[in-house]
Design goal:
The protein has 611 residues and is an alpha/beta fold. The protein is built from 13 helices and 28 strands. The chain has a seven-stranded parallel β-sheet with strand order 7-6-5-4-1-9-8. Strands 17, 19, 22, 24, 25 and 27 form a six-stranded mixed β-sheet that branches. It is globular and about 75 Å long. The N terminus is likely disordered. The chain binds 4-nitrophenyl 6-deoxy-alpha-L-galactopyranoside (JFZ). 4-nitrophenyl 6-deoxy-alpha-L-galactopyranoside (JFZ) binds next to loops.
């Protein structure tokens, strides 16, 4: 505000000298502000380690998207509206004058804070983040800043955030608030992805007015009156650095223990954690990441309730996602979208209850656990979580031959058993000549209850340090070996990374692969054997019939590509058979494809099946 005041002054003055003078003052002030900035930021972000202590212990949380949109359930004027449930106002371009009246009949009389919080607790979740205000601009608490809220504007006349806060305190879990600070489709002055159907004149919009009159005071009252553990901001596309800083100041001057996510400040800033405490990958589990992060994910394909969305993930998938996330050192924030009457979809309830049941026996391998200290990947489908003195090896597929091999892994092992085995029967193990740890186990013959679904988890207890070399993957006559693009090195026209989709296909994929682009993996074969080589990919491309060459151990396999339903619906194709000696070497895969698509196929796996 100060700055724009001065700029106005410049244009009002007639004398050039005065202009110059004012210009210099502005320059001086700006430089001064920038010089002070680093200290100010340092102050505002200090104490991060302490703040993040409970958060790192928690590892599993509940996201709740709930607002007026929930009452529509994805339908407007008798039509299913494509896209996210909470985006319906935007996607159907619903005028403010038609959307606001939804409040007058919003009456979620089934809402019960106690049972929502109990569901989270039973699911093994340690915190809840709920939408205090999503992009539609409607506040789900008793706000003094705007009457457009659930307490003042609906027949419900209750404050769910207050009731949830009380219930969370009773159950001893944390409560945090999602707040859409940048986008607000109810406000004529908000920018970002703005409401251009009611308020088309973008040039006349002054986001400062919106921030000053709604966003800042609402965040202030949330922090002052509800004592949140986390403030979860969103899509900061058009927020300035200064506006983000002001938000942070409002929060931290009240309470320095409030955790703030990265989306408080502009997405494309180089240093995404300049202000926030942690990163927020959405709908995907990152391959490698060194910072604190929290993966937020839906149970179906929407955050806010949609009556027509029944594309639920499986219970096993949820457990594997949780493990996968913790194995990379992050938290998993799993979403529910209650409906307009305050009911949680039955499918969501049963998925969460399944997670809770699994966590009762396996929580030791999740809560307070750290990332895998032995690399991100195994050559079979498994993940590792850890804590000092313990490794948890989660097998997503059971090994052929009931033998587990951990490459080049040496340490002073005191015990190995299966998590959930009440007898804690010790498993025998030995080292082979190459220094690989080999564990014998046969889940069928173990006493006590050992679940192999959705995962089997081994606990390795050890003293001292781990001696581990993350060198070549192994082709092993006992296990199937899987080589994924995430573990390859690339050359030429070949790239694997996060796609730019926001639908259910958001994720890592072959962004580019054509025209002699190659991927290379190293391998080590433990003993002589024959293998069937399989390729797993999805493809809808014009590249049908293109060539993929796989070179390994002096042999080569030529594969002609086929199509599947889409590049996101992979199928497994036979490549050929190779015969490997006890040796180490490279697997090189390349394509001659030169067509229009960026990648010949969307390859996800190269699998060696021992024959
Ligand atoms: C954002 C929100 O828009 C969404 O409603 C939900 O709250 C989620 C947790 O966070 O997700 C986005 C952000 C940007 C896009 C899509 C979803 N986008 O650019 O299409």
């Amino acid at each position: 505000m100060e700055k724009s005041g001065l700029i106005n002054l410049i244009f009002c003055t007639r004398s050039t000298n005065r202009k110059l003078y004012v210009f210099l003052v502005v320059l001086f002030l700006t430089a001064g502000m920038m010089a002070q900035d680093p200290n100010k930021i340092d102050q505002l972000v200090s104490g991060k380690q302490q703040r993040m202590e409970w958060w790192k212990e928690a590892r599993f949380g509940m996201f709740i998207h709930w607002g007026l949109y929930a009452d529509l359930g994805g339908m407007w004027e008798g039509e299913h509206i494509d896209g996210l449930g909470e985006w319906i106002m935007y996607n159907a371009k619903i005028p403010v004058e038609n959307y606001r009246p939804l409040a007058e009949r919003f009456n979620p009389y089934y809402f019960n804070a106690e049972s929502w919080v109990k569901l989270a607790v039973d699911a093994g979740m340690k915190y809840i983040i709920i939408t205090a205000k999503h992009c539609d601009g409607f506040a789900m608490y008793d706000s003094d800043v705007s009457d457009y809220n659930i307490y003042d504007g609906t027949p419900f006349k209750r404050d769910p955030l207050r009731e949830l806060k009380d219930a969370c305190d009773r159950y001893g879990i944390k409560l945090g608030f999602y707040y859409s600070q940048n986008w607000d489709w109810n406000e004529p002055d908000a920018l970002g992805l703005d409401n251009d159907w009611d308020f088309p004149d973008r040039d006349s919009k002054d986001p400062d007015v919106y921030y000053r009159e709604k966003c800042f005071p609402q965040v202030k009252e949330l922090v002052e009156q509800y004592d949140p553990a986390v403030m979860w901001f969103d899509v900061p596309w058009d927020i300035t650095r200064d506006q983000s800083l002001q938000l942070l100041e409002i929060i931290r001057s009240e309470d320095s223990s409030v955790i703030v996510n990265d989306r408080i400040s502009h997405e494309h800033l180089e240093n995404r954690l300049e202000m926030g405490d942690y990163l927020t990958p959405e709908q995907v589990i990152p391959d490698t990441i060194r910072e604190n992060f929290e993966v937020c994910m839906t149970l179906n394909d929407t955050w806010g309730y949609k009556r027509c969305d029944h594309n639920w993930k499986s219970s096993g998938k949820i457990i594997r996602n949780l493990i996968h996330t913790v194995s990379r050192g992050g938290n998993y924030l799993l979403n529910i979208g209650p409906d307009g009457k305050g009911r949680i979809p039955a499918e969501s309830v049963s998925l969460l209850q399944f997670a809770g049941t699994w966590l009762k026996d396996h929580g030791e391998s999740i809560y307070g656990c750290n990332a895998s200290p032995i690399g991100a990947g195994f050559y079979y489908d498994a993940r590792c979580t850890s804590r000092p003195g313990k490794l948890y090896i989660h097998l997503f597929e059971l090994a052929v031959g009931n033998r587990l091999l951990l490459e080049h892994l040496q340490m002073n092992i005191t015990d190995i058993h299966i998590l959930g085995d009440e007898e804690k029967t010790s498993l025998s193990f030995q080292y082979n000549n190459s220094g690989d740890l080999m564990v014998d186990f046969d889940p069928e013959s173990l006493p006590g209850r050992v679940s192999i679904d959705p995962v089997t988890t081994l606990v390795i207890s050890y003293n001292g340090d781990i001696d581990y070399i993350n060198t070549p993957d192994i082709v092993d006559p006992v296990h199937e070996s899987v080589f994924r693009p995430s573990g390859a090195t690339f050359s030429g026209n070949c790239m694997y990374g996060l796609n730019d989709r926001w639908d259910r296909y958001r994720g890592y994929e072959m962004i580019e692969w054509n025209n002699n682009g190659t991927m290379t993996w190293e391998y080590r074969s433990l003993q002589q054997g024959d293998y069937e080589v399989m390729l797993k990919y999805g493809s809808d491309s014009a590249g049908l019939g293109s060539i993929i060459d796989i070179a390994i151990g002096g042999q080569s396999i030529r594969h002609r590509t086929k199509t599947t339903n889409s590049r996101y619906q992979p199928e497994v194709f036979h490549g050929g058979v190779v015969s490997l000696d006890k040796e180490a070497g490279k697997i090189v895969i390349s394509t001659d494809y030169q067509g229009e698509d960026a990648s010949v196929v969307n390859l996800s796996e190269l699998r060696f099946v021992p024959l």
